[in-house]
User: Fold this.
Amino acid sequence: MTSSHTRGRLALIAILVVSSGAAARAADEDTPVAVLIGDAVAEYDAGHYQEARALFRQAHDKVPTARTLRGIGMASFELRDYVEAARTLGASLRDQRRPLTPEQKKHAEALLARANTFIGRFTVKIKPESASLFVDGHPADLEPDGVVLLAFGRHQLSLRCASCAPTEKDEDVEVSGGEHKTIELALAPAPPPGDATSGGAGANGGSVSQPGGERDTATVEPSHAHLWLVGGAVAAALGAGGTALWWHDQQHQLDICRNDATAMHVCDNESTLNNQRKTAIGLTIGLGAAALITGGAAALLWPRGDQAASPAVACVPTNNMVSCAMRF
Assistant:
């Protein structure tokens, strides 16, 4: 029992000594690559995969080879970082700098196949091509073939484009492992400034577009319709005034004709004057009513933003004429 306990303590001390020596040498930038790799292998054999990967990466930064990539991939697989494992193991099979031996290649291929069962491979087609792709809020790290590798679980793909409307589009992706899918993300270019579809009111008071793309007809301005109605009311009022003068003139002519009539001299055009008088009365009343209606409509449509008083046209029949006035 004591002998077994002693051997366990000695093994633990040996591991700690190796680890301490490796850490000390890793801090020295002049440590030879062979020493870094030897320490990385020792850490890996001891089950210290974080330390092993760090040392393999330091060796790879100094002298990148297929074998240092394989070491990074092996440590990443043991750490369950399957995306990094698939990325570096695949790179180790392609790298021709100190290429893998047949046995190492066979081992890397088998480990890569296992890593691929724990990740998803996604081909993301983006539009416009100038847009930027993000994964979980970080810029996407694309593989040489343009594929995005994603680990187990839920992820968010985001397409961002400053010159598009909207400027960002998100899509959630659930990764079950082993899948290879194609995803399309597209954003539409923003409309030119002043375009009615851009969400703002146009030059003539267009409708306002809501964020969801629907148009809010409740906030549509009446454009210049109120001005046309005011013009119509003024024209009708002036016409009513003119016909009122004609009415007054015909009434005057009819009065003269009747006053000059005697037993020997009859007012022979009384019928004509009376018909013209009735026509003038009808026109005056009709134009006056039109002025009132169009003036009232203009008052209803007049913009209230500046709190200006609404215009109104009033025509009042008086003795032998109609008086019209407009108030703003």
Summary: Confidence is low (pLDDT under 50) at residues 1-27, 198-222, 306-310. Residues 119-186 form a domain with the Immunoglobulin-like fold (CATH 2.60.40.2070). The CA atoms of residues 155 and 185 lie 15 Å apart. The chain is about 50% helix and 20% strand.
